[in-house]
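We emphasize that the prediction below concerns an isolated chain of 191 residues; any contacts that depend on oligomerization or on bound cofactors are therefore not represented. The input was used exactly as deposited, without trimming of termini.
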Amino acid sequence: AHMVVTYYADPDAEPLILDNLISEIRPASRRPDLTPVFSFNQGGVYAGSLGAGLLHIGADGALQAVGAEVFGRQIRALYLDRFAQLWVGSERGLGRLDLSTGSAYAMAVAGDAIEVPIWGIVADAEDNLWLALHGAGLGFWRREDGVLRLHERQPTDPRSLPDNNVRTLFRDRDNVLWVGTNLRGLASVAL
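Result of the prediction step, given as a token string:
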């Protein structure tokens, strides 16, 4: 079994990673191979589901749906950033749960909500988000200004994505983003 625990000295600090397979405690920036599938803190555990939406299991064991009006009921991806923001990928697009206030937000680009189903979320070293977009390719959301760029399959360009149905993302320790598509295999992007 593989167990990984993160520790935040304070809410704004970079988390430290304790991993039962690696003897050294490392900062999260030195563990790009890890992607959280759920998030927990002293307030409980957050988990995505395909039917009940984002769920919160409180420290007392109470189960509560969170942000269903914003995120919907089909949660495919979660990513907890170092700013205590839980990013949520769902059939409604990209959302964010501010863990300090409990407020849920639908992320917008140029005033329009991002309503493409999101199947995966990975951050790069600058805390920008890479998004696995079902039917729309690969998304890059730049934290600095909130701009979303789409990278779609270009049939005449052999260097483009093999398929626009991106299902999964993985950032390896060499800072390469691996992009898994539905039917046409893998692509890689040097970050």
